[in-house]
Specification:
It is found in: Secreted. Its main location: secreted. It comes from Aphis gossypii (Cotton aphid). GO terms for molecular function: heme binding; metal ion binding; peroxidase activity. The protein is mainly alpha-helical. Helices cover 29% and strands 7% of the residues. Strands 1-5 form a two-stranded antiparallel sheet. Strand 8 and strand 9 form a beta hairpin. Helix 3 crosses helix 14. The N terminus is likely disordered. The protein binds protoporphyrin IX containing FE and calcium ion (CA). Protoporphyrin IX containing FE (HEM) binds next to helix 4 and helix 14.
């Protein structure tokens, strides 16, 4: 019976399929079928009192703002070590817009944040050969097997997030795909193609050095195969650059510049444009709804066997991974084209390029405002965001652009801290109609790289309402098996991944030092023994670590970080709050085109800036969907008292007349 369920696309029989995300205690109450959407009770759910401005008795300053520099923060010269690996682009200092790949944002260091350079480190790498070989345990043996850690410590249990909805999760993945794209090694030294597992799915005795070792132990509770085939991340040595230790290549532009929609590659960016009136190419679905354009050959990009099937293209190759990701990327496309129409009608003389660049600049500004005004305070806590200068100003320009601050994506962020939100993922996604009824639930495993469902009937809006109303899973040590056991199921088990294993193994691949070093970087004491970890986590978790690792210095950052107690007002523990905070700080003050900055080439005028400040995630949902009611705080589940659904007409949005040329 179970076998049947797992292999069918329908949801019949799923009722008893209890997993993290399979049940949702706070799901929409659909007893009010009175066809009256104004009855906000239909969306009522329970929100915990955990509020974002709760006081933290032990507040932390991010490494860049911490006066104590003896904590392991690298010097600027070391942070910027990889600059010499990349040719210096020529920059036009008068150009008013961002380049597509992020180059020339920093005029003195034009490769900072540029796509196809390397992630930066702010803490010393740890490789066993001080170059690129994976860290060993203190005793000199291999570190514990990641799959063993995963099946012991990170199982699947349903604990809905007390406050955040699934849009909070989805927006985090959007930020990820905007700023990080790891590139894999693909060849052996002799140029032959890389195979990391034997044909019988065991791990080769002499594992090629280009491979990650993910061997599945014989007593594994979940999987029949014994090896997960994954290549290591391409690094600076692969580019012929001799810096030591290596750094990992990043295919995305590091800036928060919606490159996942526009593309950081010039040729692709052009090919995604209509080249008329600034608009991006799109396809029309039912009822003339706008969707991302289709790939010419769907079978290349999607898990489909028909070359004309629905399969999207955008600025990022991962767009078809799951329906919700495709939907939120589409939402930015719709926003861009909406702005183009407004700009064109106000300024009929503007040419295609001018409309495109201005619409792009406004899309990015609205997105950055949502990030710093709503997303970061929800994720890290309002007090923390304020103390670390992450909140936007309420009036006037910000003049604090810091040309010495490198905004490139951090290894510790991409390979550990931000990945912890894989725990947020709901395994079953709700589709919700305009009356608040859950019309169906889909399992992630059935929709990896099959985006057709997005474009059927009114599903776009059904998915969007699901994102707004369905709780995320809690940010904790439990992960849905839709990503740990059934990720990327293609035709057979052979291709399955365990995302949580990958998260841990990537930390080692990137040479991240162990958890203990991040404690010190983030102002905590060095743990001399496992017992010293008790200041940040329960005794039970310390015991788990004692069983898994030989030495407290062996504990992976990812594992220690997930185990930490949440900081007051935040969904993350101390060391993740610290690195994620550091990252958003660099993306703000190290971005010359950050929307609040005044006196920069291409800065908004004050009227325009004040219009951008009216943007909320709720307003973006109203502009880009056919939903009529949204919660004012669009990252928090609706609640009749604390976060009621309100009609879109009552949600403020930027007035674009500030862009009308006088
Ligand atoms: C919706 C379901 C999601 C799926 C199926 C998914 C899947 C994946 C996969 C397969 C990778 C590459 C793993 C590797 O090769 O090491 C990855 C990387 C990553 N994910 Fe997710 N992810 C999801 C959501 C999220 C969310 C919500 C966040 C954060 C809020 C996130 C953050 C990251 C980060 C930071 C990386 C590293 C990116 C890079 O450096 O290329 N992911 N994810
Ligand atoms: Ca970007």
């Amino acid at each position: 019976h179970l076998h049947n369920v797992e292999n069918s696309h329908d949801t019949v029989g799923l009722k008893n399929h209890i997993s993290k995300g399979a049940r949702c205690k706070y799901a929409i109450n659909n007893t009010h079928k009175n066809n009256n959407i104004q009855d906000t009770g239909t969306y009522n759910s329970i929100i915990s009192d955990l509020f974002t401005n709760k006081t933290d008795p032990n507040p932390l300053m991010i490494p860049s703002l911490n006066m104590d520099k003896s904590n392991g923060l690298l010097s600027p010269a070391d942070i910027n070590l990889a600059d010499k690996c990349f040719p210096k682009p020529d920059c036009d200092i008068n150009y008013r817009y961002r380049t597509m790949d992020g180059s020339c944002n920093n005029l003195e260091n034009p490769v900072w944040g540029q796509a196809n350079t390397a992630n930066i480190r702010i803490i010393q790498a740890n490789y066993s050969d001080n170059h690129s070989q994976i860290r060993k345990s203190k005793s000199g043996h291999a570190l514990p097997n990641v799959r063993h850690i995963r099946t012991t410590a990170f199982i699947d249990k349903d604990f809905p997030a007390p406050r955040h909805n699934s849009l909070m999760m989805q927006f985090g993945q959007i930020i990820t795909h905007d700023t990080a794209l790891l590139l894999s090694k693909s060849k052996l030294d002799d140029g032959s193609p890389l195979e990391c597992c034997n044909p019988d799915s065991t791990t080769p005795e002499n594992l090629p050095k280009q491979c990650l070792n993910i061997t599945i132990p014989d007593d594994d509770p979940g999987s029949k195969k014994r090896c997960i085939s994954v290549a290591r991340t391409a690094d600076t040595a692969d580019l012929g650059c001799s810096i030591k230790p290596v750094r990992q290549q990043n295919g995305a532009s590091s800036f928060l510049d919606v490159s996942l929609l526009y593309s950081p590659e010039n040729d692709t960016a052009i090919s995604l444009r209509k080249l008329v009136d600034g608009e991006l190419k799109y396809q029309l679905g039912p009822k003339d709804q706008v969707f991302l354009p289709n790939a010419d050959n769907s079978t290349e990009f999607c898990n489909v066997n028909n070359a004309t099937a629905v399969c999207y293209i955008s600025g990022d190759p991962r767009v078809n991974q799951l329906p919700d990701l495709a939907i939120e990327t589409t939402s930015f496309l719709r926003l861009h084209n909406y702005l183009c129409k407004k700009l064109k009608s106000m300024n009929p003389s503007w040419d295609d390029e001018r409309i495109y660049q201005n619409a792009r600049r406004i899309v990015i500004a609205m997105y950055q405002h949502v990030i710093y005004n709503e997303y970061v305070p929800e994720l890290l806590g309002k007090e923390f965001a304020k103390a670390n200068k992450l909140l936007p100003l309420t009036e006037g320009f910000d003049y604090n652009y810091n040309k010495n601050l490198n905004p490139t994506t951090l290894s510790s962020f991409a390979a550990a801290a931000f990945r912890s939100q894989h725990s947020y993922i709901q395994g079953l996604r709700n589709l919700v109609d305009e009356f608040g009824n859950v019309t169906s639930k889909i399992r992630l495993r059935d929709y990896y790289f099959i985006p057709e469902i997005v474009q059927k009937e009114d599903n776009y809006d059904h998915f969007s309402r699901g994102l707004l109303t369905q709780n995320a899973q809690d940010q904790d040590k439990y992960y849905t098996k839709e990503v740990s056991e059934f990720a990327f199921r293609v035709a057979n088990e052979k291709n399955r991944l365990d995302l949580v294993c990958l998260d841990m193994e990537r930390g080692r691949d990137y040479g991240l030092p162990p958890y203990n070093k991040f404690r010190q970087l983030c102002g905590l004491s060095e743990a001399k023994s496992f017992a010293d970890l008790n200041d940040q986590m329960s005794e039970e978790k310390v015991n788990t670590l004692t069983k898994l690792y030989q030495d407290v210095d062996d504990v992976d950052y990812y594992v220690g970080g997930i185990f930490e107690n949440k900081k007051p007002g935040s969904v993350l523990g101390h060391t993740f709050q610290c690195i994620v905070g550091e990252m958003f700080y660099r993306w703000k003050f190290g971005d010359r085109f950050y929307y609040e900055f005044g006196n920069q080439t291409g800065s908004f005028n004050l009227d325009q800036l004040n219009e951008i400040r009216k943007t909320t995630m709720a307003s973006i949902m109203c502009i880009t969907t056919n939903i009529n009611y949204v919660p004012r705080n669009a990252f928090v589940v609706p609640n009749i008292n604390k976060n009621p659904l309100v009609p879109c007409v009552l949600i403020p949005k930027p007035n674009l007349s500030a862009w009308e040329e006088k």
